[in-house]
Specification:
Elements lengths: L2 H4 E7 L12 E6 L2 E8 L2 E6 L13 E2 L4 E3 L6 E3 L15 E2 L1 E4 L2 E7 L3 H4 L2
Antiparallel strand pairs: 1-10, 2-3, 3-4, 4-8, 5-6, 6-7, 9-10
The protein binds FE2/S2 (inorganic) cluster.
FE2/S2 (inorganic) cluster binds next to loops.
């Protein structure tokens, strides 16, 4: 399926400078009617769900390790920012979202018509 047909794109900011990143390179931001976590790692932007799939840790309160994993602040499980894989091996999966930097600003793609979109 064409990626652009699968997603509804939401503008989250006009530029990277407009996002209020913590010293750890993470921030919470609104995308449509959701709050998500946005990450800046080596000049690249990534997006994932606000809460950890393990026990609801707030991902923006964690940090990014040297290899580009986001580390949850609660129990330190690690997830790849690029694909959500649980790289510390506990078997969870962190939902990630595509990010596009366009001339008009920064956009995050949320999947259309799925159950996840109805839950907050
Ligand atoms: S809540 Fe994130 S690792 Fe437990």
């Amino acid at each position: 399926m064409d990626a652009n047909k699968k997603y509804t794109w939401h503008k989250i900011a006009a530029s990277i400078e407009e996002i209020n990143f913590s010293a750890n390179g993470l921030a919470e931001i609104a995308a449509g009617n959701k709050t998500i976590c946005i990450a800046l790692h080596q000049n690249e932007l990534f997006a994932c769900t606000q809460k950890c799939p393990h026990a609801g840790g707030i991902m923006a309160g964690g940090h990014i390790d040297a290899t580009g994993n986001i580390v949850c602040p609660l129990h330190r499980y690690k997830y790849s920012l690029s694909n959500g894989r649980n790289t510390s091996g506990e078997g969870y999966f962190l939902k990630t979202f595509p990010v596009e930097m366009r001339q008009e600003g920064i956009f995050v793609g949320l999947e259309k018509n799925n159950l996840f979109g109805l839950l907050k």
